[in-house]
Amino acid sequence: ETHGITFRIQIIVKELLDTDVLLKLLFHLPVNYPSTLPDISVNSDQLTRAQCTNVKDKLLEQAKKHLSEPMVHDLILWIQQHLKDVIRQSATVCNEKPTLSKGTSTEDGIWMLLLHLDHMRAKAKYVKTVEKWTSDLRLTGRLMFMGKIILILLQGDRSNIKEYLILQKTSKVDVDSSGKKCKEKMISVLCETKVQSQHKRFQTFEVKEYSTLDELQKEFETAGLTTLFSEFLPPLLK
């Protein structure tokens, strides 16, 4: 394997902030793990984005102490025991530096990602997987089919966009010509950029099929993405 392993762990930390906190942790272990640190993403509906970032930073600090030895189990035990302290520290930092905190939380803003897929052999399963990932990561946008063209257009927090890309590249989402589960190797990142004021924000994620190129173009124009369409679509039609 050239990409390593990605897996998601969900844990509940009880009696915190007068409620149970559900932590959704995504670990990407590179091929040379544990000699190399894992990539870690943290999400929780009960915590703010700043608090999730702080949890991630503290986990990476702990990971450095376990370099060259298996560490995921130790990291999970550690955060279960110390989550309350980590969140307290987040609150202290916010209170001491309100201006900096405000700037940091909106630093990345909303980002947009446009992907091109070469094909889908197991279409129904593939579509269901993409819908689940976008729901879990609170991403909006479109999965678009027009003839042989397959595009995925996503909007959301930059960290969630990057997490989606990891899942897309490392999970077995399709089947090969013999029907065996396989990873997506024929994917192109056409564009990854910050959403601008002229771009329309998608409110949901939808799967849509277009019978003509004009229909697909109209979707992009309605979203204020005419330039994106004219830049990236013509080469796909050749």
TrEMBL record:
Any GO BP: cellular response to stress
Transmembrane domains' residue ranges: none
Residue ranges constituting the RWD domain according to the UniProt record: 1-86
Iron as UniProt keyword: no
Signal peptide start-end: none
Domain of life: Eukaryota
GO cellular component: cytoplasm; nucleus
Keyword Nucleus: yes
Subcellular location: Cytoplasm; Nucleus
Pfam families: RWD
Keywords: Cytoplasm, Nucleus
Task of the protein: Enhancer of SUMO conjugation. Increases SUMO conjugation to proteins by promoting the: binding of E1 and E2 enzymes, thioester linkage between SUMO and ube2i/ubc9 and transfer of SUMO to specific target proteins which include hif1a, pias, nfkbia, nr3c1 and top1. Has no effect on ubiquitination.
Listed PANTHER family: RWD DOMAIN-CONTAINING PROTEIN 3 (PTHR15628:SF1)
Name this polypeptide is given: RWD domain-containing protein 3
